[in-house]
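Continuing the batch. This is chain 6 of the set; chains 1 through 5 are on the previous pages. Same settings as before, nothing changed between runs. Recording input and output for traceability.
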Amino acid sequence: MNHFSFLVIFLIIFHISQAPALACNEEVVIIRFKYKVHIINGFTSNENPLIAHCKSKDNDIGEHVLWMNNEFKFEFKKNIFGTTRFWCDMRHGSVQKTIDVFRVGHESYESVYCHYTGNCFWSTREDGFYFSNDNESWLKRYEWY
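Output for chain 6:
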């Protein structure tokens, strides 16, 4: 296979991955490169803000102060080596925890389900960290302790 053929195949696959096909009113995505992570302060009071500092090996998204019901989000493209990983150091009052918010290379629940919509929603609450890929159906994934 020459370089031109390889380039054409790559561009076709890339184009398909960015424009998902619809089948039976559900989104079907074969390959997805672009993702968005949402961090939501789901606490029920504004006594303390949620402090979230998200990063990967190559990117520091920075520290964000989120008051009740506030959200911040960041977008990224999955690397071609299949090793993309983002984690966030979360702090609320006297409690702190670091969680993976996106990780490829391990068949984690989140990376599999983020693939369907391209979105990874994380809601921090008094009793832990909740995950959703549609901002509607939530599943508790981690405790604060």
